[in-house]
Input
Amino acid sequence: MTTNVKRRQLLAGAAGLTAASALHAPFVLAQPAKIKVGMMLPSSGTFAALGASITNGFRLAVEEAGGNLAGREIEYYTVDDESNPAKAPENINRLIERDKVDVVIGTVHSGVALGMAKVAREAGTLMLVPNAGAGAITGPLCSPNIFRTSFSNWQPVHPMGKVMAAKGHKTAVFITWNYAAGKESSASFKEGFEAAGGKVVKELLLPFPNVEFLPLFAEVAALNPDGVACFFAGGGGVKFIQDYKRAGLKDKIPVYSTFLTEGVLRAVKDDAQGIETTMHYADALPIARDAEFRRKYAVTFKLQPDVYAMQGFDTGLLLAQAMAAVKGDFGNRDGMIQAMEGATIDSPRGKWTMSKAHNPIMDIYLRKVVGEENKYQSVAWKALADPARGCRMG
Ligand code: PHB
Output
């Protein structure tokens, strides 16, 4: 055989191979590219447990959707954001620029989420917020590619003013961490409480994530308001509940909150009995979808879900629903956005719809700590929408 013949045979062989693969092409293409999901959540620090719950919830929704998103397998990229706003731009850029993710899911801490939203807005990357309530995300920073599946900081605490006023409380002190979520919760509480005839006599702040509560509790005792309202969560919330009891205040000045008692009752149930909170989720909700979610969650993770797990689940439901609407064609950006904007989510919290500013319109419940549960008491506010001040969707 001459070199030329060999070459011709090789070419013929190659052509044959090409023809064969062309024949099989439909089968090759039937396995579409994986969808890259970037999870930017805290896995260390005071909010570590919240990040874990969100991840669990999201994965459960994907499992419910058949383990993929409209036939596309998921490739996860994760980063621990440490609830550190200073590192937010670098961390989200790692996911967007280095890992080239299709969608970023994050995060818990409002300050970190604000940094993320600024980058995602510029880059045009789809961003789903599974917790952080910073008002600006669905306010001045609102954007077609940013959706929130949790709440705005204005929402869960807003009905609390009405609840406390109805109990006859005329004065209140608000205690919180000095950052976006704390300050926005405080402002919303003041708005609600004062509209209902109450007066906030003092706002007490401490730096995030500090837990030196005792000097502030001394001030509370001196002011002697009718009630205390607060925003704390995660590990910091545990310490607040313990210290409030130890300072001898629990039976003197009732404390009210939102997230304070969420996901922590196994650790602090003796110190938390009777604490009332308003929230877009509760234990013992009379909702069949919730019973089903709780059963699956308990079987899968050997744990009871909390509000963060539910929000992670809803983030998965929203993404799965949008992917189904575009039949897995993630590149159909307008179709994805339209599907999310028109979404009704059949959530364990009860059905909710997406507002024009891309934030849930949902019921807020009054709950009370009984044993290890944030037990459902009543609907504190039906279909509450964030005012979305400053949102101009471009
Ligand atoms: C927030 O920073 O927006 C935040 C953090 C923890 C919560 C709720 C809100 O439980």
